[in-house]
Design goal:
By secondary structure, this protein is of the alpha/beta class. The protein contains 17 helices and six strands.
Length: 514
């Protein structure tokens, strides 16, 4: 009885809201009926309704609409595996949008199944060897995904769906039921009008048909938008979860400054401080006598690494470097990692391959006097293969430094600067030819690497080298974030397990005492 009374109450609300408009329409129609040009005016109703229907269909076919899916923006640190997962989520959202979607739109089980499918698509990419990868998630993280998705969808509904904060689910279901009854009543009214006034009845029926077509074109857009937004949001947080970037934050609405919250915020701030203070690791590699140690000394402006005609660097050595003296608009610390020279066999890399996972930028030093590039090619291939098997990491940016350009023909001619883009002198032509040979031999365009010619004897073009570093600084910072990600995670750490045992013991003791 209460449900039926509530339904009649909503019907009365709708009638009261529509009564003034319906009354004005009736009086206006009666006034038009008394005018001599009534029939001409009556023709405007089906014409305007037809135009509205055509406009609605055109807007529906437009790729951008008011119901565009709000896609969460990545934080700039996506790895190739993250990008693959986002593409898979986009394909799943498009596939659901292109089909009829969920049959029971108000059925909670349908939404749960859709979220499970989305989670499974992402989980299969990060856990390819697991039988049920979507179940390989700790329970608190599942609840955190539900919390974040619910929060984002609530904001989207409040921003884009009118009256969403006023109507309840029960009200919506009631309105849908009354919608069918009102359509039957309108059909009888139009049929009666056709019997007494065929012209007016025909015009009203045409307008009603157009309105029905418009509503049928708008409601699927809303449903499609809700489905795609839900899939994209669940996929976004699932990617953050499996990649290790989703940090559980303890929040309390009653006491936002509780001890646990302070500890969580302090831990999060410590992680951010650690990431900000981590220096950029620049690996300096190259063949023997290519000029690696001399390049490090030139970048420092003082003697740091020993250099000589014979190879001096026998072990991997790191040297600190600050960019304030070279890049006034940037302030970052770096470590220049000097390495022994390699030959065709890439000697030092066979025993120190792990160092490739600890770099954010690569200086590959190539001497223009050395025509054999096979060792450089092998090193670049080893670097690419190393990161090809680590989809959670990003290939560091590569800058190839071409040294000894002052010794090219004519050898005694050295009067920089030289225009290698449009050579005008024999020296500039020799430098351009050497750069083209390096670019072709190492396939630098396919690797996305930069090439900078320098003369380490007098420091020529080192400013251009620093500009190249500044140009690739964003890519190097993204590589650093992914490198630090594993070190910043504390899942299952001893401290966390101890806290869980303490809190669980307190709860169990309180229950036993009760």
């Amino acid at each position: 009885m209460q449900t039926r009374g509530r339904q009649w109450g909503w019907l009365l609300v709708i009638l009261l809201l529509c009564a003034p408009t319906l009354g004005l329409m009736a009086l206006g129609g009666y006034w038009l009926y008394q005018q001599p040009d009534f029939r001409d005016t009556l023709l405007l109703l089906p014409v305007s309704a037809g135009l509205a229907l055509m406009l609605a269909r055109w807007l529906r076919q437009r790729p951008s609409s008011d119901f565009s899916v709000a896609r969460p923006s990545a934080d700039g640190g996506d790895s190739p595996r993250d990008e693959q997962a986002r593409a898979a989520v986009e394909q799943l959202a498009d596939r659901y949008a292109s089909t009829a979607g969920m049959a029971g739109f108000e059925n909670l089980n349908e939404w749960l199944a859709l979220g499970r499918d989305t989670l499974g698509v992402v989980a299969a990419i990060y856990r390819p060897g697991s039988n049920r990868p979507e179940l390989d998630i700790p329970t608190p993280w599942i609840l955190l995904i539900v919390e974040r998705v619910s929060h984002d969808l609530r904001i989207l509904l409040q921003e884009r769906v009118p009256f969403s904060e006023l109507l309840t689910l029960s009200d919506g279901i009631t309105l849908i039921k009354w919608k069918d009854r009102l359509q039957d009543a309108l059909f009888l009214a139009n049929l009666t009008r056709l019997l007494f006034n065929p012209a007016a009845g025909l015009a009203a029926a045409t307008a009603a048909t157009a309105q029905t077509g418009i509503s049928q074109g708008t409601l699927p857009l809303l449903k499609k938008w809700l489905l795609q937004s839900f899939i994209v949001q669940v996929g976004h947080y699932a990617i953050l979860l499996y990649s290790g970037r989703l940090v559980a934050e303890t929040r309390s609405s009653h006491d936002p400054h509780s001890d646990q919250t302070r500890r969580d915020l302090a831990r999060i701030q410590a992680r951010q401080d650690t990431l900000a203070s981590e220096p950029l690791r620049i690996l300096v590699a190259g063949q023997t006598n290519a000029g690696k140690s001399t390049l490090i000394n030139r970048l420092h402006g003082q003697l740091r690494a020993p250099d000589d005609i014979v190879p001096c660097t026998q072990a991997i050595t790191a040297y600190p470097l600050k960019s304030a003296d070279f890049l006034p608009d940037s302030d970052f610390e770096a470590l220049l990692i000097d390495t022994p020279g390699f030959g065709v066999n890439v000697d030092w890399l066979t025993k120190n391959r792990d160092i490739l996972s600890q770099i954010d930028l690569l200086f590959l030093v190539c001497s223009v006097r050395e025509a054999a590039r096979q060792a450089d090619r092998l090193f670049l291939e080893a670097l690419k293969n190393h990161y090809a098997t680590r989809l959670n990491r990003r290939l560091p940016p590569i800058i190839v430094v071409a040294t000894h350009i002052d010794q090219l023909r004519p050898a005694r001619d050295w009067a920089p600067p030289y225009n290698v883009v449009e050579p005008e002198t024999p020296k500039a032509e020799s430098i351009r030819a050497a750069l083209d040979a390096i670019r072709q031999d190492l396939q630098l365009e396919a690797a996305g690497a930069d090439l900078v010619p320098v003369c380490l004897r007098d420091g020529y073009n080192l400013d251009i080298l620093w500009l190249a570093v500044a140009h690739r600084l964003d890519d190097a910072a993204k590589a650093k974030v992914l490198r630090m990600q594993e070190a910043l995670l504390d899942n299952g750490s001893p401290q966390q397990v101890v806290r869980q045992f303490i809190q669980g013991g307190r709860w169990l003791l309180a229950e036993l005492q009760r």
